Amino acid sequence: MTPEHETAPRTTATAAAGRPAPPGLVRRATADDAAEVAWLAALTFPLACPPGTLPADMAAHIAHKLTPAHFRTWVTSPEHALIVHDDGDRLLGYALLVRGAPGSAAEIEAIHAATGCEAPYVELSKIYVHPDVLGGGVAAALMRGAVDAAAELGAGLPFWLATNKANARAQAFYRKSGFEAVGERTNRVGDQDHHDLVLLRTRP
């Protein structure tokens, strides 16, 4: 994402099939959003962790990887796109995309086997919604924004993500959004290994 996107006009969230669009706008984040996005990340990350994840490990992950400084950097990075759902009073969700090579051989092998394409790919690294509005259409609006942002980061590049194998709700949402499982990976949080599915978007 280039710096000029920081002040790009907001776009109105469109309606999901069979459901009115939630109030608010999906837009690119700016540096001024960094503190609020970091607060939202700290709230939502533990809710997505599998049962048994140690509180100390979650706290360390938040403290070292989800700070306002991280989000300010991602706002201005040409390899990242940070989008938010803004209802005018507060941010209800956010998504982060990154263009590049995946961090593990398992991810690269799974995506290459499914697509025949070499990296770079576009990863949907994070997509989180405030717990107060789960099921209200915010995640769907963010996903539509993420699909558009992925095309801006790299039109035609494979678009992928990873989610915990135990998170059935997330998997159902991603399948509905056009993703399918193409492999697995191990993701370490603190001293614990988490087992994830690697999913690739194969249809609209």
TrEMBL record:
Q: Which InterPro entries match?
A: Acyl_CoA_acyltransferase (IPR016181), Bact_Acetyltransf (IPR050832), GNAT_dom (IPR000182)
What the entry lists under PROSITE patterns is as follows: GNAT
Record SUPFAM superfamilies? Acyl-CoA N-acyltransferases (Nat) (SSF55729)
| Gene3D superfamilies to which the protein is assigned, alphabetical | 3.40.630.30
Offer a single GO CC term for the protein.
ribosome
Q: Which residues form the N-acetyltransferase domain?
A: 24-204
According to its UniProt record, what is one Pfam family this protein matches?
A: Acetyltransf_1
Q: Which domain of life is it from?
A: Bacteria
Supply the CDD domains for this chain: NAT_SF
Is Ion transport given among the entry's keywords? no
- Region annotation (Disordered) ranges: 1-24
Entry GO MF terms: acyltransferase activity, transferring groups other than amino-acyl groups
User: Which controlled-vocabulary keywords does the entry list?
Assistant: Acyltransferase, Ribonucleoprotein, Ribosomal protein, Transferase
Q: Where is the composition biased (Low complexity)?
A: 9-24
Protein name as annotated: Ribosomal protein S18 acetylase RimI-like enzyme
What is the species of this protein?
Promicromonospora sukumoe
